[in-house]
Amino acid sequence: MEAITRDFFLFLSKNNLLNNIAKKSGGSFAAGKIIGGTDFQSSIKFIKQLNNSGLSVTVDHLGEFVDSKEVTQERTAECIETIEMISREKLDSQVSLKMTSLGLDIDHNLVIENMTRILDTAEKHNVMVTIDMEDEVRCQATIDIFRQFKEKYNCISTVLQAYLYRTEKDLEDLAQHKPFLRLVKGAYKESAEVAFPEKNDVDENYKKLIKQSLLNGNYTAIASHDDQIIEYTKALAKKHNIPNTQFEFQMLYGMRNKTQYELVKQGYKMRVYVPYGLDWYGYFMRRLAERPSNIAFAFKGMVRS
């Protein structure tokens, strides 16, 4: 049933008709519930609410697989403006972005040029920029870009996905860079040739990666709504005397709000992933595909006052 549910929502995520309908709605249905707004400016009030409640934030302008040089430049300029507004508004916020939004599928030099402009601004304002991981075919290129920029910039991190067989080796290879890593289970549909097909195997690999990253001394973000993973991380940190300042938990905006606040009260750093933009429909469907329980979390978020 879980596999059927996952495939169903992944199928819906790629439905152009539904995506266009969602765009035409302007995001009013989702704003303040599962996304911050249709642009960063409209998201600021929600970010401030989260910050005032002790929650840190990372923001992401939704949209990927860009095939136009002009659009990548628009995305670059928008990201730079977002970083500047984060600094100006004194928000406790980082920025996440996908390499395909900056031209990964168009030209390597274009990605490097756009990312350089973004990171120059990020370093100036001390705002962390996380390179999001996409599907497996783009994994190596993404890691290579991260490695290249990590040699020059401090305000850069990336994401590794527990459902890929290769991730344990990737984590080992990145250890020399002392990276800031966000560990996730993974949201893209991948074949059994490259990814664990069974949830239990993904969960066990996720735990292995958390342990590997923390014992390597990396600052690690555990991005999960799974109580089992959260409790495992707490117990691991206690057992190995890993300070709370070496890791944080991350959850999606609008999901498991009560748990987010409880983690803050317990003395853990909790960061909320706040996406914004008109392309919210595909994002939302992929989040529902990740875990059936996300459907219940999302419903509660959508109907809350």
UniProtKB/TrEMBL annotation:
Domain of life of the organism encoding this protein: Bacteria
EC number(s) reported in the record: 1.5.5.2
Key words, A-Z: FAD, Flavoprotein, Nucleotide-binding, Oxidoreductase, Proline metabolism
Coiled coil, from the record: none
Catalytic activity of the protein: L-proline + a quinone = (S)-1-pyrroline-5-carboxylate + a quinol + H(+)
GO BP field: L-proline catabolic process to L-glutamate
Residues given in the record as substrate binding sites: 98, 286-287
A single GO molecular function term of this UniProt record: nucleotide binding
Pathway(s) served: Amino-acid degradation; L-proline degradation into L-glutamate; L-glutamate from L-proline: step 1/2
Gene3D superfamilies xref list: 3.20.20.220
InterPro entries: FAD-linked_oxidoreductase-like (IPR029041), PRODH_bac_arc (IPR008219), Proline_DH_dom (IPR002872), Proline_oxidase (IPR015659)
UniProt-listed SUPFAM superfamilies: FAD-linked oxidoreductase (SSF51730)
Binding site for FAD: 133, 161, 185-187, 199, 224-225
Swiss-Prot/TrEMBL cofactor(s): FAD
First-tier enzyme category under EC: oxidoreductase
Classification via PANTHER family: PROLINE DEHYDROGENASE 1, MITOCHONDRIAL (PTHR13914:SF0), PROLINE OXIDASE (PTHR13914)
Protein name: proline dehydrogenase
